[in-house]
Structures are given as structure tokens and as C-alpha cells.
Amino acid sequence: LDRCSRTRSALFREEVEIDRVSNVIGSYYSVKGAALTIDHDVQADSNSLMVRWKKSRTMKKKEEKANDGRAVDVRAVDWTAEWPTIVEDSPVASEIDSVRMTPSEFCRVLSRYRYYTEGGVPSEVLAPYNRQWLDHAVFLLDMQNSARWPAITEDQQSKVVEEVRHEILKGYIRAAKTAVVDYALLNSRARERLDIPFIPVPLVEWGSLPFTVPDIGTPGGPPQHWRKGLAMARASLLQRNVQNSKTALRLKEFWIDACKDVRLLSCPPMHTDVRDINAFAAQQGTAQESGIRELSVAWQQVVQIVSEEPIYLTTNNLNGTSMGSYSGRNSSEFFGASPEHMEMQFFEATAAQLSQLAREVVEQNLREYVEFFERFAVEPLHYSAVKALTAQDTWQDDMLMNKLVVGPKGTDIRFKHDLDSVSARLLQPYKDCTICLKEFPRPDAKLREVVTGRTLIMEVREEEDHIKAGFNRVEDIVRMNLSNAEKVLELYEPFLFLLEEEDRVTTFLENPDKTREDYEAYVQHLLDTIDSLHDSCPNIVRMQMMRVDALEVNRKLEQCARDCISKLLKSLALRNQDRSGRLVKQFEHLNARIMRQPENEDQLVELEAAVEEAMSKTMPSLLSEYEDIKAWLFLTWDQEHMLADEDYKAIWAASEWKTYATNINDRENDLKMDRMNIEGKLVERRTDLQEELAAIVGKVAKFKDKGNIRYLDEYLDNLSELKKSLAAAQAKCEKVNIEEGLVGWDETEFEAHGEAMAAIDPYDKLWSLVHDHQKASQRWTRTPLFSGEIKPEEVEGEVSAMWRLAFKLKAVFEQDQLTKPQKVAEKVKADLDAFKENVPLLHALCNPGLRDRHWKEISNVVGFQLEPDPSFTLNKVLDWDIGTYVTEIGEISDSAGKEYQIESGLNAQVEEWTPVIMEFKDWGTTGTYIVAGSSVDEVQTLLDDHVIKTQTMKGSPFAGEFQARLEEWEGYLTGVQDIVDVWLKVQGVWLYLEPIFSSEDIMQQMPTEGRLFREVDAAWRDIMAKSVEDPAALKVFRQDAFLENMKSANDKLETVQKGLNDYLETKRLYFPRFFFLSNDNLLEILSETKDPRRVNAHVKKAFEGMQSLQFEDDLRISGMISPEKEIVPMTTYVDTVAANGAVEKWLVQVEDAMIESLRDISFQSRDDYPVTPFVDWVQKWAGQVIIGIFNLYWTTEVNMTLDAHGNQGLVMYADKLEEYLADIVGLVRTDIPKLVRCTLEALIVIFVHNKDTIVDLRDRGTTDKNDFDWLVQLRYFIEENPDKPGVDDVFVRITNSFLGYAYEYLGNCGRLIVTPLTDRCYRTCCGALHLLYGAAPEGPAGTGKTETVKDLAKALARFCVVFNCSDELDVNAMAKFFKGLASSGGWACFDEFNRIDAEVLSVVAQQILQIQNAIKAKLNFFEFEGTSNLPLRWTCNCFITMNPGYAGRTELPENLKALFRSVAMIVPD
What we know:
The protein is an alpha/beta fold. It contains 51 helices and 19 strands. Helix 11 (246-259) runs parallel beside helix 14 (339-374), helix 41 (1143-1168) packs parallel to helix 43 and helix 44 (1207-1228) packs antiparallel against helix 45 (1234-1260).
């Protein structure tokens, strides 16, 4: 803006005292106006044109009548009379003379110009003034601020506002008309026609020029009654406009002379040397410090100039005067303000002027900085284009140098100075320059001791629009060039692997399977990479603005490659050295192995095999290894790798063994002579062994003449020696056979050894039998019978075994005609036969069941008193001739044995029960116990076994002695069985009901059942306390009235359960989704009446798509939270407190709010779709809404495309979908939130299917939206709801089916891949729904039957429950499920439906038929399975899936099949 404009004083207008409105007239000022003079005493001519133009029509008529109707001759008008007198020799008079005009002509031009500007342009053609500008002007007055307007009343405020508005409108109209006239006068022909040779520029400021008083039109100065007020206003303005003082002009001149060339930023000229960012930043810092230093020095002079102000400063200045030329007058009277106030105004004006001057320096430097960067504003060349430039080409300008270096981890290449840091440091000088002068003090802060207000000049702020625009421009240029320079890193992407190649070389070297070709290819690959690096990556890349120095990185990459090559070749050299050393050792080992002298057959055969192996395998292998080592060595030579002396020594040592094959041939001939010597020694050893065996056979043959039992010990010793000799001979035979096999001979049979073994065996058995019989006979006859050592069964077994062996040996010897040994066997057999007669007597007398009554009977039989005595032996009994009564004694013993079995069995049962301890578990915080652990199973096992055993014993004829005891024990077992059955049943019900009735809410709602349960609970606690006190099973089950108390408790619990079921039924009827919850889950929910937030743990059981609900602090529900943590706000909040603890009531409200919210959000998303970019739209809304509304627009756009363009439109629309899909893919590849990624995963599935559908329709030639191929697709529409007239909703059509979108919240879950099989299943299922039937997908496992039904429910936003069927389902369970289905309006998918029993399926058919008939009859309530007035929602339906032909599957009844449309599901395509 012009420095002489009003804007300069506008800075302080808000701080000026408010005076009358008329006092601000003429507050404009200019330098030229100061030179003009005006005579305020000149009176206006009442006959001037100005006056006549302002008169009303009435006055005009009067004048015309007074002038006798004669027109005024304008040529005789004195035009100067309308304007103030032009003083001779004034600047105005001189200017008029310079253009050869008289004052009268000049005034005529002014009058004509004023005429056209005031009356020549109708106000109707002007643009209306913007009312907002008026309101803003009034707002700036801040009339409500009492501190600013302390002495103005409300009426005065209204008057001031009206006057301001009037002045603004008048000024706008005058300025607009003037602009129109000025525009017309730009045309020379218009100027001639209007007789206005130039466009006057009247100075409207009130200086020495005339002006027009508003609303009066008086030219030449104000009217008389205004003059005093205007004089005061003029004096006041003189006080206020202190910025126009001499000091202000001095400051301006000084600043222009001293500070206009100050530079706060350094902008290097073109074609100067490049520098790195550190040098550039240092240069800027130096420039700024130098500039600030210059300004600081100048600022001292500024303060000095201000201190010399002669007028406005109240304190003595340098010359000791005060108030300058006004000292002779009363300053307060002249200015209307105190000197202190004038001084304050002066300092404010001076500070504002200095702030502006300082701003100009800062802004000039910022502009130069922006212009400096404009050098780099052209589109920078890509590095590929820069590389192609030659010395003759024009290179783009640069100023910075930045090196490429390897990152600190050694795995990447980056700029030495990070480009973000470079960008920041290039922009920082701009920021620093912007605020560098903000600490400069105001002059009054230096001149006054106390400063109450601001002490610093007004700073330049970074947020100012033009400052910010310059910064953004530099930032854009820097970002563009640095982004382009950053692309240089792409050159090194093919070579980055070199930085980590050493690790891969190590891995490569560790792989023993790498061949020589692999090594050679690897080395060549590295060499090719070095060549490619030289070709692709120059050392200097001169990008625009920043030159990239890549020399260091290029050297580093090349060095990495060469280090890897060196490591490979050095490893090869070390490997060759090692292999050569190992080869030499293998030759030495081979030589040591075949040059040994053989001492036996093993060594001979080993040496022969070693020589043969050396000739056929080892030597060729070693020579091959030697040749391979040479080949590897040549590879290192080809790559010019320097080998060490150790490498040459190792290969030379290996080469000396190349002729070793000759030594092997000589050794083979020597071994033939060694074989002949060893074979001779083997023949000698074999002959000696055969002679030794013949001698043993002779010794064995001598036993045929030995038959005297008195020499038993001698015979046994001889037999033992012979057996040892045979064992040693057998080892020798085996060794000879091995040696024969080693030398290649057939093995010798050594038949004598077999003969000796066969001959000695019967003799050994015979004499061992004699020895064993003698020892056993003494034990049997001399051991006390009642000591427990004699076991009749064991004795009988031993006797039988010995007898069979004696009988066998007798037959063998008799066959071989060996008389003496035969007699010995016969004697042993005869002794055993004699003893067998006493075995029954042993059984009879040694029976443990014999009691005193039995011994009395035996005594009666033998005729004398016989009692068990520890000294009784079998010999003693036989001496008493008791054996003659063995039959009678045996009968008594048998009877005693049977009784003993019963007695011992009964005792054993009691003993088994004695250690049984009932296990009890402390049941949480209830203070009581429950039966737990394995004790119940143990008791049940004992019962199962002991009841049968006891009953069997009672039926025995020998149980007479124990009849009472058996009956008592049987009664105990029967009681235990009954107690266990009732106890476990009561415990199960008590465990189920205890947490329910521990809730005070449940007790209040079910008082009768609660009282009964309390009675049972008390009885239970009493029984468990007694049981825990003495947990032995025999004690626990014998408590008083145990069984009766348990039965009574069971009866009461049955009553409680029935009442509980009735209570739950009422809750389920209120909120039907409770039908799909078990009683336990439902009771957990119903018990949470005090804190609704605790129901969050169970929300998913009723609403599959919700993980929890969002609660506000006042317990209102404001949103739904999915398992994926997606939050969907509710349109209407649910007030849980208003439900008074009735969970089912506010859950019904939640269901309604869910439907309402999903509908509202869907319609909002529909409206947002056309105005929001697709990639932004998919991130803005809930996942379910995105898919639904996308399908809606997909349907709409396809219909519109078919209507407008037919099949060709599908071609274009397919391309559009491809673009959308590309956008989605691009979005997926970015860093997006997890929720958005879940949305996109599901959307892509549906999107791809929709796109494939369009492509398929295009290929099929579909041209009309009524074509069948289009009608069979799942299409979404918004139509009027037939059930709610006037309300639009989302509906889905497929073929002739018309299905509503249910707005069930499903969460941000995935969707099923849609295959042709899925589409066919959708059509069949939707057709069944349209006809009010169910659908029955059937097919093998894995074909997607259940998942397809679930995904169809998601497509229609339906509540769907999947239920796995089994043969345990009964009619009541199915009835409960169908009640929930009918009253909730949801879907049910019964998986494996044909596993249910046929009897149940028959009833299920009637239940489904009853529901379908009610829907067809459009009933809202119907009677079902004992429930009258069951609510019915017509959207309910059921689907069944089956695996036909599988084991355990039932054929559906015909009446059930008729209710479903079957869908054959095969393996999907």
C-alpha cells in the first residue's frame, strides 16, 4: 500500500479517544495535500451549480418561476465560485498554468466531472453493497466493550452505528459511480463528447483542499456552525497523526540510507562452487548474524533520532526545549489531550513505523530467498537423463553437494546428510529470518524508565499468509528437487546385495555340495557386477539443486565385491591345501594298511581284501581326488590369485603318490606266499579238535554201566566236567569254522560233538532227577503240616512233574537197552507212585478253612482226639494210620473249604471298603463341600462287584453259618447304591442352582423357589459337614436318615427347577434370542441387573456381530463394538437405567437401536458415496455398510449402463471396476489401520465377484437389464417398504425373489469366496424363501453347505444361528429352538440334520409345517408347542444341510422333505 494512505493511521485508530463522528471527517492525509492552502473564510455561492444540483424538485420549480422560465446560460457561469479560491503562486496554480488552462476552465472541468460522478450514473445499476461488510464494520466498532466506549449510552451507540453505516454506504456509492465515470473517460472519444479533457483526481483529504460536507454539499469549507468543532477535530487529528511528524520522515530517510542493503540471508549466484548443507547453513548463519549486527548498530541511531523529537516528547530532549513551537500556547487546549498522552501516541506511531521498516527488510530478504530457489523450480531431470548428458549439453543448476554413504549397519546406502535434514536446514534460514528481529526494542523502551505496555517492535509472524506462502513455495521446490535426487538411490538397488554379500559367501563356503562350476559362476557373477557398477553408477550425478557424490559408495561396493572374490579364492586355496594334505595322509594310511605282515587267517584275509580294494577302488578314487584338486587349483590360477608357499608344497607332496599302484601289485604277490603258510597251520588245529571230541564221546558211553544211587554225587561231578568239556569243544569248533570260512574253505561238520551232546542229555536228566527227588521227599514228609510251608497244590505239581520225567527216561533207556539206567528210572517212578497216595491226605489236613467244629468231626472219624499241632508231619500222620480215613476226612475238608471261601470273600469285601475315603472339594466361597475326585467311581466299582458276589454267596448251600451277616452286608450295599444315585443327582442340581439363587435379584423375582432352595441348601450343608468330619465310606453312608434326606431334597429341587424353567420361558418370550442360549448362559445374563456393563461378556451370544456394547458414564449404550474392535455408533442411545434392571427389556431396545442405526448409517453412506473419492469412502464407514452400499451402487450403475449403452456400456463399466480395484490394491499395500484392512479383505471378495459378473455378462452379450443372466444376480435396491408405507429401505432381488435387508449388525468380518456353485445355491435358497419354504443343501463334506447359508445371511444382513445336530436331540429341544426362530425372525441352519432320529424328525416336520402355515396366513401370533400367542416374525426360516449316504444318517420322512427345496452341492469350481 502507498505509504501516504490512510492505512498508516489505521493501526492506531482503535487506541484513539472516541470523538464525535464529524470529527473524523477529513482524516486523510497526503504529502501533496500538505502543500495546498485553503481560505476557510470564503463563503459558498448559493447560486452555484452544486447548490442547484442538490435542491429538491420544489426548489427547482420555484427558481424556474423566479427566472421567468428562462434557462441558465452555462457559458456565463462563474465556475470558480463553486470552488475555493486558488491562491496565486500556489502549487495548484502553477500546475494549471503548465497545461495552459485558466482557473475558470479548470473549475469547469471539475464541476462537469462532479456532475457526472454524482448524478450521471443511476444508483440502480450499481452492484449492491455486501451486507456482511457492513456487519463486519459494526463488529469492529466493538460497541459492547464498555472499556472502549465508557461515556456513550445505548441510544448514542445506536446513533453512532447508524451514522457509520450511512457513511459507508454513501462512500461506496460515490466510489462506485466515480469508478464508472473514470472507466468511461478512459476512451478519448468519451472525453471529447463530455468535454472533460482529463480525469480529475480530487484530493478528498482535508488539508488545504476543498471538500464536500456530507448531506449538505457545501463547497469551499464547512458551514460556520461546524468550524469550531472541525478546528477541535483538526487539532485532535494533529495529535493522533503523530506518524507524520518530522521524526517519522527522518527515520524513513535514515532507514533507506543505512539499512536498505542489509542482507539477512545469503543467496549464492549461479555457477558458483557447490557446497554441502553444513557450509550452506553456516553461510546463512553468518549472513544473518552480520545483518542483525548492522541493524543493531543502526538501531542505536534510530533511538537517537527518536529522542530528538521536538514536539511530542514531554521530557527535555537534547536541546533542552519542550513541545517545540507550541510552547507558547496551551497545548492541552490546542490538542485536546495531555502531553503524556501525546507522548504515548508518538511512541506508538514511531514503534509502528519502525516495525514496518524492519518488516520491509525482513520481507525483502525473504523475497530474495524465494527468488533464489525459483532457479530450481523447473521440472528436474531424472537421473537417467542426467547420465545421458554430455559436456556440450546444458546442465541444470545446482548449489549443494551431498555424498552417498553406507548406513551404520552396513546394509543400506543413504545420503550422508539425510534429505529430510537437508530440507529442514534449507527451510530453517527462512524461518530464522522471519523472526530474527522480534527481540529489537522499541525506542521508548530505551528512552523511558518505566514502560507499561509492549517493549519490543511488532514482529513478523510465520503464520502470516504471504510469509507462509513464500515458505510453502520454497518447501515445494526443495521437496521436488530432493525427491528427484533421492531417486539416485534406485541406481544402487541392484548392487545393495554386495554390502551383505560376505555373509552369503560364508554360507556358500559352508555348503559342501557346491561344485567347481558353482564357484566359477559365483566369481564371474561378482566380476560382472563390478563391471555393471562402473557402467551404471557414475561417481558424480549432477541433479538439479543438489549434486550427488557417489565416489565413496562406488569404491565401497567395488571393494565389497573384490573382498568376496578374494575370500572365495582364498578359501579355495586353503581347501586345496587341506585336501592335498588329507590326500597325502590317505596314501600314507593305505600304505601302512597293506604293508603289514599277516599272522593269522583274519589278518591275511583283511590284507588281501585291502589290496584288492586299493587296486579297484581306493587308488582310482585317490587319483580322481588328485585330479580334482588340480582342477580347483587351476581355477584360482585363472583368477590370478596369489598362492602361498604352503599351497605349492601341499600339491607337490600329493603329486609324489601318483605312481603308488606299482607298490600295490608287488604286495599282492607277497600275500600269496603268506596264505600257504597259514592254511597249513589251520589243518593241524582241525585234526587235534576232532581227536579231542572222540575222547569225550568215549567217556559219555561209560555211563551206561552206572546205576548205583549211592554214587550219585560222583556221577553228578563227572557229568558236570563232561558238559564243561563239550562247551569248550563247541567254542573251538566254531572258531575253526570261522577260520575255514576266512580262507575260503567249506566248514567242517564235527559230528562227534553232536553225538556227545545227544548221548549225555538223558544221563544228565536222570541223575539230576534222582538228586531232586531225594531232596523233595525229605521236605514233603518231615516238614510240619500246619506251619504253612507245605502247600498241597505245589506238592502235587512237583510230584506230577517228576513222575512224567521218570516215565519218559524209563522209556528212553528201555528203548536203548540200557538196563542199569532204566532200573534207576523205574525206582524213582515207583517211589513217586507210592507218594501220590498220600497227596489227598495232605489236601484234607492242610485246608485253611478247617475250624474247631471240623476238627471235632475228624476226631470222631479217626476215633481219637485230633487237633492241629505244629509238630505234626506227614510221616507222623502216616504212622498213626490216619490215611485209612482219607475219604471221610476229605469230605469234611471240602465242606470246610466252601465255607471258608464264603467267609474269606465277605471279609475281603469289608477290607476293600475299609480304606475307601470319600473325597470332598471345598466349593468356592459357598462355605460347603461337594463330592469330587475318584472316590465316587471307586465306590461304584466296588458296588458293581460286591452286590453280585454277595448275592452269589447267599445262594450257596454252605452259607448257613453266615446268613445274618450276609443279609446285613447286602442291605448296606443296596443303601449305598441308592444314596449314590440320589446324592449325585442332588449335587448336580444344587451346583446348577446355587449360583443362581445366590443372586439377590433372582431371589426377589422367584421367592417361592428361593425358599425351597434355601431349605435344600441347609440340609445339604448339614450332610456335607458330617461327611467331611469323618470321610470314611463305611461311616459316611451309615449316617442317620441319609437316604431319606436326599430324596426329600431331590423332590424340592425338582419343584424349583420347574419354576425356574417357567421363569426363563417368560424372559425368552420377551427377548426371543434368549431361546438360543442355554439356561446357564441366560441366568448369568439375567443376574446382571445392577451393573449392565457386565452383560458385555454375553452380548456375542445374542448378537453374533457384537463383541460388546459401548457404555457411557451414565450407563447409556451409545455404540456397538465388533470382535474386530470396529465401533458403530447408535442413532438412538439405549437407557439401561430406565429398564430397572430388566436385562431383557433393554436388550430388545438394543436390537431395535441396532437396526435403526445400521439403516441410518447405510443411508448416510449412500449419500456420501457420490461426493467422496472411492479410496476415502471405503475407509470412512463400517465394513458391513461399505459392502452393502457398494452392492447398491453396483446394481444401480449396471442398470443405468445397460439402459444407456447396452452391452458396450458393460465393456466401459468393466474397465471402471478395474480402476477401482487397482485403487483398492494400492490402498491395501499402504500402511492402513487394521480395521480398514479387514474391510478391504471382505470388500475385495465381493468386488472381484461383481467385476467377474460384469465381464461374464459382457462376454455373454447382455444388453438389457431384464436379461435373465442379469436377473439371476444378487441385486440391491432402495425401494418403499410395503410393510411401512412412505419409508424407504434396502431390498435385495434375485430372479423373482424380493427379500428385505434386515440390518443385522455383522461386524467387520470376512466374506465367502463366491463361486458359480455359490451363485446357484443363492438362487435356489432365495427362491425357496420367496415361496416360504426352507432350503436343504446336501452334498459331501467340504463343499461349503453351511458356509454358503451363513454368507447368504450376511448378504441379507439376517440373524443366523448354526446348530450342529446329533442323535441326542429330542422333540423338546427342537421345539425350544423353533420358538426362538419364530419369535426372533432369524434364520437357523441345522448342520447334519439327518443325524437326528427318525422318530424326532417326524415331529419336527409338523413343527416346521405349523410355522410355515402361520407365516402364509400372515399371523402375528400363533399357538405352538404349549405356548399360546407366540410372537411370529415372517422373516424366520430354517435351512438344513445333509451328507447323504454317510454312516449314521437317517432318511428324511417324506412330509419333511416336502417343506424344503434341495440344493445339490458338489466340490466348488
